[in-house]
Amino acid sequence: MAALRRLTQYPPRGMAISTLHTSSCASAKQHYKMLVLGGGSGGISMSARMKRMMGAENVAVVEPSEMHYYQPIWTLVGAGAKTVASSGRSTASVMPSGVKWVKSKVQEINPDTNTVRTDDGTEISYEYLLVALGLQLHYEKIKGLPEGFEHPKIGSNYSVQTVEKTWKALQNFKEGNAVFTFPNTPVKCAGAPQKIMYLSDAFLRKTGKREKANIIYNTSLPVLFGIKKYADSLWDIVKQRDLQVNLRQNLIEVRADKQEAVFENLDKPGETKVIEYEMLHVTPPMGPNLVIKGSPLADEAGWLDVDKDNLQHKRYPNVFGIGDCTNLPTAKTAAAVAAQTAILNRTISKILKNEKPDKKYDGYTSCPLVTSYNTVILAEFDYNGQPLETFPINQAKERRIMYHMKADLMPHLYWHGLLRGLWGGPGPYRKLLHLGMK
Fold first, then answer.
1. Distance (Å, rounded) from C-alpha 36 to C-alpha 377?
2. Fewer C-beta within 10 Å: the chain N or C terminus?
3. Cα distance between residue 133 and residue 38, in whole Å
4. What is the arithmetic mean of pLDDT over 172-201?
């Protein structure tokens, strides 16, 4: 139960290679030229870049977690195609050498005094601040959770504590409803809630249980996927595989002891429907990091308020942001972070020279939509929701090669490229294609 309580607290985030960093748990007041908040994909990749730009001794990263996870692979962990152990490495091993690791949780940010306070009372001052705190999972906003995860037949691919419960529920499926949800909030990796549905369908077919299964995808959205080109292909798959998709349905309660899920019709507020389940995959409501939300750095909704072109804060010019914690109007994915790293690196280098940022982020993001154990639709698009594709083929079509890129190649590039600050930039898959042609 203690592990499940942590689901409502600071989420684990998702390295490079080095053990020769320094760490700190507290002590006297500290000062750094560049202070990075968060040791996830954005924080670690940018700290590696900042080390090269201004020297390791001038960079510190505040991150409480001992483990760093490559979260995009959790979709495959929940379907039994990868192990949870393969998704994680120690934070110590990914922290750039020489960079100070402050092993604490950020408690307060005061941009007016250029200081940050950690949960152990340490005050750290900075010349420049880079915020990469990710977003917050809110299982507790669904009545009956997170305590419902103590029961069988329910899982969630969004937490290291519950992703293996998804696989167990899928393996133990006998007959009845397999239900998959999408919340009425912004989410990270908006394709993941339906990827596990396609994989579950494939698993149940492979094990001869599909005829006894009714697969239901209840999403709060008015569409299956936000980009029409890819949504059209997904609707074809839904029809071909006899999957039931219900739009504008939001999970508000889980009665795990009765195996019941309660949904509200968002088009008719107050109207609810109870569905019995044999398997339930929950995508939790999500929201801005609470420390950012309580600081002057937030916009009205609580997200880090940055310029969408150069990732510099709109009101505090010595503050920058990257990834899920920001209010950038694009999908929150690891591919988006990869694209943002080069832009942000360029922005900071210009600011250090008292020059105006000259590179613009176009909102590039990507979602490899896993549709089976060997196929993927690779969605790539920009701020305007327009496809921004890498390969000279129709990426809206299911392809085996895209699955292998998602399952095998991208994790390698993440650990050994992105987190070392060596790979990324606008259209990271384009760089991959370029490398493959050399």
1. 34
2. C
3. 5
4. 98
Tokens of 77: 């962990």
Q: What is the 3-state secondary structure (H, E, C) of 19-83?
A: CCCEEECCCCCEEEEEEEECCCHHHHHHHHHHHHHHCHHHEEEECCCCEEECHHHHHHHHCCCCC
Give me 161's structure tokens.
Answer: 């504590």
pLDDT in tens, 323-353: 999 999 999 999 999 999 999 999 999 999 9
pTM of the model: 0.92
Average pLDDT, the chain: 92
The residues spanned by each domain of the chain are: 30-135+288-365+425-434, 139-287
139-287 to CATH, choices 3.30.1330.60, 3.90.1280.10, 3.50.50.60, 2.60.40.2550: 3.50.50.60
Say how far apart CA 249 and CA 15 lie, in whole Å: 37
Give residue 424's pLDDT band: very low, low, confident or very high (50, 70, 90): confident
Residues whose CB falls within 8 Å of the CB of residue 49, separated by 6 or more in sequence, listed in order: 341, 345, 421
Report the pLDDT averaged over residues 10-27.
Answer: 40
Q: What is the amino acid identity at position 4?
A: L
Q: Are 186 and 149 in contact (CB under 8 A)?
A: no
- Would residue 156 be called left, alpha or beta, if left means φ above 0 and alpha means ψ between -120 and 50 degrees? beta
pLDDT on residue 434: 40
Question: Does position 8 have pLDDT exceeding 50, yes or no?
Answer: no
25 among known catalytic residues = no
- What DSSP state is assigned to residue 406? I
Catalytic residue, candidates 189, 224, 369, 396 = 189
- H-only helix segments in 172-241: 192-206, 228-240
Q: Which of 367, 379, 402, 413 is catalytic?
A: 367
Give me the mean pLDDT over the 348-365 stretch: 96
Residue keyed to tokens 């020279």: 353
